[in-house]
Write a structure and sequence with these properties.
Blueprint (H helix, E strand, L loop, with lengths): L5 E3 L5 E3 L1 H15 L3 H9 L6 H9 L6 H4 L6 H8 L3 H6 L3 H31 L9
Organism: Geodia barretti
InterPro entries: Med31_sf (IPR038089), Mediator_Med31 (IPR008831)
GO molecular function, one term: transcription coregulator activity
Length: 135
């Protein structure tokens, strides 16, 4: 991937670096996979039955590598990217109830995570140690 976003052309126009554009596009798409309703949409539109699209999902597995995963803001998308390799999972996503169930499980996970995190921070404060700050 090139270091700069683009270079100035003769007419003062900025040319987008194709490698950077591809990186950004694939990153955005992979992160969209964290949304169960988007997954449901893909299934209902028939994308998850197309061999070319399934191959594309397989290709995107490189995002699981540390050098790429560090750019991901929604890590659950990597979990769904892995699940999308399963024909059963792709088939079940066509049902709205499946997407709703996944969404409910995500919300419960986040709620539990925040609750445990808050309890951990309170214990640290009670001991007089500094609380780690999120970046």
């Amino acid at each position: 991937m090139a270091a700069n976003a683009g270079s100035a052309a003769a007419g003062g126009e900025v040319k987008e670096d194709p490698e950077r554009l591809r990186f950004q596009t694939e990153l955005e798409f992979v992160q969209c996979l964290a949304n169960p309703h988007y997954l449901n949409f893909l299934a209902q539109q028939g994308y998850l039955k197309e061999p070319e699209f399934i191959n594309y999902l397989s290709y995107l597995q490189y995002w699981r590598q540390q050098e790429y995963a560090k750019f991901i803001k929604y890590p659950q998308c990597l979990h769904f990217l892995g699940l999308l390799q399963s024909e059963f999972f792709r088939r079940e996503l066509a049902y709205a109830q499946c997407a709703k169930f996944i969404e409910e499980q995500q919300l419960q996970h986040w709620h539990l995570y925040n609750k445990k995190r808050s309890q951990f921070q309170q214990k640290i404060l009670a001991k007089g140690k500094p609380v780690p700050v999120d970046k």
